Amino acid sequence: MKKIGYGIGGFFAAILLIIIIAFVFAGSLITPSFLVKQIESSLNVRAHIEKVNINLVSVLSGIEIEGIVLAPRDEVANKGIPLEERKSKPKGAIQLGKVDVKISFLALLTKTVKVNKLVLKQPEISLTMYEDGGNNLTSLFKTPKIVDGEKNPALSKEALAEKKAEALEEAKEKASEPPTGPFSIKDIPIAIKMGLVGIQEGNIQVNMRKTGQQILVQKLDLELTDIDIDGSDLDSHNSLEVNFDADVTIIGKSKKEAAKFLLETGGKITPFIVKTGLVNPKVIYEVTMKEDSFISGFAAFDAIAGELPAMNQAGLKLDKLKEKAELKKDVSFKVEYSNGKVTFLDEPTFPTKNYDLQITKGSYIVTTTNYHEMRMGMLYDEDESKKSLASVDEKIKQATKGQGDPKALRNKIVGNLVKDDRLFIPFRTYGDIRNPNVELGVGLGTLTDLIGGAVKEVIKGKAGDALKKIPGAGDALKGLGF
């Protein structure tokens, strides 16, 4: 019995010794200098890492890396100068405050990939989009031409020829195999469970060379939680939670803020189609636009406010549409995202100081191309509505030389422009959202004809064709004594 006790004690002592050796080995091997060398040998960057944190408890399950910088490659990286001998820290296009990874290796014994945590903390990314569709980050992820002061062996003729031969052999093998369909999670024999995957406190700056716009995504928190996927049992294991919070600011070519959207989104997602295992192409999000979000200088509003001749000719003054409009309260709504297309699933109203904007169900924006088609309604501020309608009355009064009550005629003609004693303008905007086509949902052309000429003709005893186009206008004029 004593020998068995000694044997068991010796076994655990051996296990403990192995863990200690692994800890010492990992602590000495996985250093900032080691990781920088590995990164610069495979990517076309100059890298920098401040610190690697490994402890006895997490050595077999996790690692934390601080102060990661990926910058354009330079001579320091080409020569492979050790990190500790470098005199300065590069200013990178990609900076990560911390990467925290924790993996459960024991779960692999049950054919389960379990990631307890994979979080990028405080990432700072500066992205420039060029006119041809390229960007400044693409070159960073190419294979470097020079490593440790010499030509990269991976790019030698022999290495490239070998790589090409392997690719041809792989292509032949695929050609001889039965044709396969698209990726299905059912083909993967391992279940996937993840606690937390995402980005915390991120900041992304996007510079659009073509338009001169700048998009700032600040306070970015993107978290995927409770990920539970098992291709062999999608009925019970096919879900994840998504939370996306960010302040998105759009700065125009003039360097002024054109819009700011304070967003909170979230929801439970079914990532795969149960029957086929294919990626679910449609995702529904609950979105909340927070109070103090604002829009200013929206091209569609500019068109309505001053670029549509009918509006001006009719005497409708909508100058407030060009002013900054801040959201007076939080607004929640549902959208569907599919292949870059965002579609409104309900009809939210966004109340601002100058107007309330109503969006019709089915309106959409394609984020990848800026194409959109949206049907909206503008419910103008009550005081401003009175001023605008008074302007119409004045035009009618001038046309009728002060005879009769202009309000009665105006109500007959622009009744479909008034809702709850406020000016209501339905419109459709489509095409490139930066330079949209705008169509009004009301027949202002007939109103323009009437107050611009037809009334004068009626005064002279002549009924113009324009007047006949307006239902009830003739009766209204008779009531006024014409």
Polypeptide structure, described:
The chain is of the alpha+beta class and 482 residues long. The protein is 27% helix and 36% strand. It has eleven helices and 23 strands. It has helices spanning 2-29, 32-42, 75-79, 157-176, 299-307, 309-313, 382-399, 406-414, 444-459, 465-468, 473-479, and strands at 45-48, 51-53, 62-72, 94-104, 112-129, 146-147, 150-151, 191-208, 214-229, 238-251, 257-269, 283-289, 294-295, 325-326, 331-338, 341-344, 349-351, 355-359, 364-366, 371-380, 418-419, 422-432, 437-440. It has a 21-stranded mixed β-sheet that branches. A two-stranded antiparallel sheet has the order 6-7. Helix 7 crosses helix 8 (406-414). The longest helix has 28 residues, at 2-29. It starts with a helix and ends with a helix. 17% of the residues are buried. The model is unreliable at 1-9, 445-449 and 451-482 (pLDDT under 50).
Question: What distinguishing features does this structure have?
Answer:
single chain, 482 residues, alpha+beta, 21-stranded mixed beta sheet, two-stranded antiparallel sheet, 11 helices, elongated, disordered C terminus
